[in-house]
User: Fold these one by one.
Assistant:
Number 1:
Amino acid sequence: MRITFKLFAQLADHLPPQVRPGNEMALDVAPAQTIAQIIEPFHLPPALVHLVLVNGKYIAPEARASTTLQEGDALAIWPPIAGG
């Protein structure tokens, strides 16, 4: 099945170079793959996987190893954001 995978801020560097300007890509995943399994091949630093959303809904860290997606879902990940 196909989902939309989005990485923001410095996490976008982990996407293939040709999709980095738009910070998202279509991604084929198995129906039983969890969020943790989907992001594992991208080698995202765990400390930077802060805000994880599926279709705009927050997924808590403890649920990422058991949450699966549906066809057409959007998985978006942000690092911690600081500012002032």
Number 2:
Amino acid sequence: MLDSSENLELPPIPSKRYFTIGEVSELCAVKPHVLRYWEQEFPQLKPVKRRGNRRYYQRHDVVLIRQIRALLYVEGFTISGARNKLAIDNPAPLDGDRQHAVKALIQELEDVLRMLKGS
């Protein structure tokens, strides 16, 4: 799996909004071409793309990449096994659930606005 030189503790994630693929590569001890491959294999991993398709990862992407790395390299999962494990541990909300949650939030905000205008 990992040789002992790669089994070192990963560096802390700096507090910034966006990271380039090179920075993420260093933070996660994974080569850039592997990160690009994982984007195809894990639907949860979607970095922002700007200026000529340059990738910009956010903090949650870096955390997810570290989870994927641990599943594959430390725990010995296959790609499909890791994909299934992440889907079970972090289920994505259904579109209907998302719409319902947004509508409920809008209603609550309108209620608060009405209360504030009434004061």
Number 3:
Amino acid sequence: MLEPSTNNDLPAIPGKRYFTIGEVSELCGVKPHVLRYWEQEFPQLAPLKRRGNRRYYQRQDVMLIRQIRSLLYEHGFTIGGARQRLSGEEAKHDINQSRQIIHQLRMELEDVLIILKR
């Protein structure tokens, strides 16, 4: 999954159910056309498509995009290598994804606690 240093560089994922391609672009530091390309290259990345073929990404999609971004931009994987790495990690992916969600929620709850203590 992503290293902690990578998580700090990107904004926190809000507690929404669905995200537009523009929101995901900002959350992941990747342009929308790159996200559309990655959908073709990574079968795991399949956002919901609704009216007018608009894409709606879920939290797990955002986390997968962050992982793809890390593999390609920070670790120097090719797209084929990243695809292979992700397909080999699907078993570990659920556990790591759960840990990342728990970590993110804990950080958000700590922020709420600080606000409430004021």
Number 4:
Amino acid sequence: MNTLLWFVVLYWVISVGIGIYAARRVKNSKDFAVAVAGRALPMYVVTATVFATWFGSETVLGISSTFVKEGLRGVISDPFGSSLCLILVGLFFARPLYRMNLLTIGDFFRNKYGRTVEVLITLCIVVSYLGWVAAQIKALGLVFSVVSGGYISMEAGMIIGAGSVLLYTLMGGMWSVAITDFLQMIIIVIGMLYIGWEVSGMAGGAGVVIAHAAEAGKLDLWPEPTGREILWFIAAWITMMLGSIPQQDVFQRVASSKNEKIAGNASVLGGVLYFCFAFIPMFLAYSATLIDPKMVAELIDVDPQLILPTLIMTQVPVFAQVMFFGALLSAIKSCASATLLAPSVTFTENILKGFRPNQTDKQFLLTMRIVVVIFTIIVTTFAMNTESSIFHMVENAYKVTLVAAFVPLAFGLYWKRATRKGALTAIVLGLGSWVLMEIVGGEDGYWPPQLVGFLFSLGGMLVGSLMTRPEPQPVAVSR
């Protein structure tokens, strides 16, 4: 236990130190927001940031525990939907957005539809990050509590984790995120492959684990052939597949690339890598049902998120524990830092800057950093006071952007007839119908609320745009 705890402390100090060192590259607000100094990030670094940002606590702890309980049907949103999100971004969104030379995704909505749409969608994007970032903070608390044998409480672990991630994110912004993500991707890949090999041997081989999962029905992907099951399956799939596209963290990777070809290819490659490696935690967690079925039976209905870390802490040697928790901490840190930065940057640029348009770049950079601190306090408080699982915190985060932001983004890029009134109608109808369905039916209803919201958003864009004359496009202003 002491060896593992000291490793965690040492690893944490080194990684934070690297992030602070990278902060020397921050010369202005654009460096802080998207590391666009010359748009210099090469293919391998951009791919690493895409992969490492997506491979977070929900991948290691959330997806794995959900798979043990519900099988592949339960994880259709992630990794299936989330992987396709990155691939779709690379194929259809990265290149046109890169050419626009924007600071945030919110700038696109301002240039295309005007200030009102910019503010509304930016608020939706910022709100969507609340659950995602809180999930990473909650996972940090769990890790510190587990490796310390309970000496550090969950709440104290959340505060320690959030404070240290805040430190280097606050100083280095996107430069710190990019450099640490590259190193953490290496640790994630090596650590996951090693622990997968170690646990596979304990369970009797990968074939035995897969066969057992198949017999238990855990590999059944498609829904039951009933109307309700199919609708909820589709809703779960598109929640992260489409709802994750209009997000600042995705846009930051696009904007930081050396050229538009790298922006597109790195997103596709990052999505493919994420899909492949996301199955390793699922394999590890399900192996526990063969290695220690009693432990799984005790935790499955209490807190299934503890199945995988408990297996590692009780069944594998110290070196394997070091490899696992090194990979887990890398996954959480890379995701947490990126998701702290993204909403803070877009809120500052697309909301606050409108009230102080003439501030200097130095003042703007200071405002960004203040917002990062405030957002960190908010999400840490939320993480400490929610009982939602890590997986559902992340999954639910994208419902608001699915119903409010995806349609205006996609139609704004690919439909010349899209208008400001069409976008406003899409936002109002999408959000309104979604909230109403959540109140009336929720998870017990026949129609999934987010699917209804998405369909109303789509209808609102079509009707609102076709009923109005095409409007002259606002002049694109680089701020």
